[in-house]
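Q: I have 616 residues here and want to know how they pack in 3D. Can you give me a structure?
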Amino acid sequence: MPPKTEKVVVDVVDIVSSDDEECVALATGTNNPTSPIRRVTSQSISLAPPQQQLNSGDIARPLVQTDQNLESRSFWKAGNYALSRTARSAPASGQLEHARVHPKFLHSNATSHKWAFGAIAELLDNAVDEIHNGATFVKVDKFDIIKDHAPALIFQDDGGGMDPEGMRKCMSLGYSSKKSNTTIGQYGNGFKTSTMRLGSDVIVFSRATHESKATQSVGLLSYTFLRKTGQDDVIVPMIDFDVSGQLAEPIIYGSQDDWYSNLKTILEWSPFASKEQLMQQFEDIGRHGTKIIIYNLWLNDEGIYELSFDDDDEDIRLRDEANGGGLKKLHKRVVELQSHISYRLRFSLRAYASILYLRKFINFSIILRGKPVQQLMIADELKYSKVSSYKPNLAASSKEAAVETTIGFIKEAPALSVSGFNVYNKNRLIRPFWKVTAEGSSKGHGVVGVLEANFIEPAHDKQDFERSSQFIRLEARLKQILSDYWKNHCHLIGLLPPSFRAQNMQKELPRRSGGKNNLQKDFPVEPTIVDLEKETHNEVVSEDGPASVSVDQICEENIQLFLRCEEFMKKETEMKEEIVKLEKELEAAKRKRAQLSSIVDTSRKQNIAKRLEKVS
């Protein structure tokens, strides 16, 4: 019979990893006066009876290291710090060992997001998932911190909000209540990985009404606090209020001292210096909603904030991507390419958010820096578009409908060589402008497709798909769709299909002796809308496509081809060596076979001789 559970007061919230909805957090108690945090009290939760609880000696108090290992503000270096080893007492008889999550896990877990905008998209997903709870907006903006005049990033929505229990589930690792076929989140990991990818600290304010009880909660997940106080476990201070009446009354789970200890820790390590400043953050939330403030934003390798709020007052940009072009003068064609959505989404959050969701919102808006994001429906922008249907080969029990792919030319074709498929999963963009053609091929230039592939699983960072057999089959199918469309429609933008050029070349081969002028007359290059004669002297026209290519680009392609050639030559040498080795093994096997055959023959002759002797 399982042990009877009862509500007990806990002193330290230990965030644990769980996929079980019943397992939200573990906690242990301590009265150790030397602890860096005196008592951090959580909500009362169901635990085993007191005789089966971990004692206070099980909580290790690692020594705080010097600041030189703690001050790295670059995300990719922030996990490089060490803690002194501390003695930990063995669990008493009959008690279970306490499984802990080291603060370094918060950082290593966040490294799944290679791209900062991927982390922002996770937080936007959470707000979009709140539409079924009545959310009508999510605001993303810069937040100025008074304490140190540093920028922070704020997300705010008017969804259903989180009650105290919901707040603790949000802060727990691996918990997810999203089991719907329409919500993108499923691992219960997005909030932690995304916030920790953008900054080292996050404070969450949420207000909700559950069973006629209105509450508001504050939770602090601070990597800075955990590192600088030398914690070897993830500790999250939280405080809750009952706001059902006229005043906000603290919800006390243990003692009043416990509650104020949480408050003191939050005020010390958050951007807010007083309880009044904390309460002010609820004033614009309304009756329900959530506000997330990410601060101590990460810096790039040059010591500058990774996110730029200054380049555009209505946008948030990735500084490294936005400055990729430098100050050099760019060719007109390059400028046109960089103004296209396929390029701008790399550094502009407004551009990325405009295509992040497949279907247009009806009563919901993404408000970036005070201005709503205008959704761009890529499929509606295509010319000469058509819809191609694809039935994925799934299990017999699956009822997955056919996948419809809208494919067509971008408006700028063939002047711009933008191409690729935009693949969505459950309304969310996973792979933008995915090129399925071979590197260097001009087939399909200007051709863009849009589809929703709910039958393949996205990766944890939701920037790619798992490499499953279904994904490989989809890739092969998209290649075929692109090839068929290109063959049947490229003439609509002034290009001759490859089959026509091949046939024309065969017919005109006998006439090559007529001279160069006749050859140029009989074999005109592919006509394009762009007037190629106006291009600069260092551009030439590719024989198998519409785009003009610079000499530098050709040189770069030649280098890449040379490297690939060397790679193939190396593989050829390895294969020859392998052939020689196999031939030697084959010869050895043949010799052994001959020896065994000789032995068998000799043995057979001896047996025959013995039989003859017996007969005689």
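Q: Anything worth noting?
A: The first strand starts at residue 6 and ends at 8. The CA atoms of residues 241 and 250 lie 4 Å apart.
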